Amino acid sequence: MKVFMIGGTGLLGCAAAQLFLDRGHAVKSIALPPLPEGAPIPKEMELSFGNYLEMSDDELKAAMEGCDCFVFAAGVDERVEFPAPVYESYKKYNIDPVNRLLAIAKECGVKSSVILGSYFTYFAKEFPEMKLYDKHPYIRSRVDQEKAALSFADSSMDVAVLELPYIFGTQPGRRPVWVILIEQLAGMGKTTMYPKGGTAMLTVRQVAESIVGAAERNKGGNAYPISYYNLSWDEFLKIVHTAMGQPDRKIIHITNWMFKLYGVKLNRDFKKKGVDMGINPVGLADIMCMNTFIDNKWSVSLGVTDDDIDSAIFDSVKLSVDAYTGKKKLLDMKGE
Hints:
Blueprint: E1 2-6, H1 11-22, E2 26-31, E3 46-49, H2 57-64, E4 69-72, H3 86-107, E5 112-118, H4 119-126, H5 132-135, H6 137-150, E6 158-164, E7 166-168, H7 179-186, E8 191-195, E9 198-203, H8 204-217, E10 221-225, E11 229-232, H9 233-243, E12 250-254, H10 256-273, H11 281-288, E13 291-292, H12 297-301, H13 309-325
Parallel strand pairs: 1-2, 1-4, 2-3, 4-5, 5-6, 6-10, 7-9, 8-12, 9-13
Antiparallel strand pairs: 9-11
């Protein structure tokens, strides 16, 4: 199988590209320069540099011609700040590219496609009473992205959307997304104030396994809630504190209403900055105070195997601390 990937040099795309190659597939990708220093970019991957958002349809067709599978491992998440209305930015980076690229893929005779999405979509569908689609522009955009992607599935092309949760792992030279968590904890002083609850999670290697597994196994149009581990916030934070060099750091649980009160303040602060939030901080309380857990049966069905989640969290946090303190100069994550 020959795979065409957008984002093949990113944290997730790079790991998937290597696994595709290890399994005997060929991989080509378009990615934005520069490459992170020391990153294990597969030498066997056919790589060209450029911004796919600025490429013509003919250029993309030429890149995709002769490929059997398309993987979209790009886009932006809720941690990227945009001016109002933020949904338009998510549409630009997450939805419009899926519509355009899948149309081109189908025209080129690509037989299967894999789109990286968000586990918020799974919970929006599972708990409609929470009105996550209405309250949060980011979640609305991910639901809309998934609907757009699955609309292309038919007898000529299989489409899989991977609803990804918290992901841990590092890529040498690249700044982890978890620096924002270190910034938050640093602002709390010597005590961590966090709600009760927990989340689904997995490692970068397991994401790669789910991508390759979906490319090889998916038939028709399907959304897969991806997870392998479910940790409470307390279990997660104990690993985080150890990686920060503060293993005995105390955790004080905050209630839902306290979280929402803090969310009101955040809304005011972001409004002053001219930033529109993808996840409304007030509504975020309801998500953070629950167990956003996912059974690993869907991941296992795609061939995802066990990994060391504790080490993945530790390494992610340690590198995030180095980035936050300026000990290491790292390349930022990119949406394009």
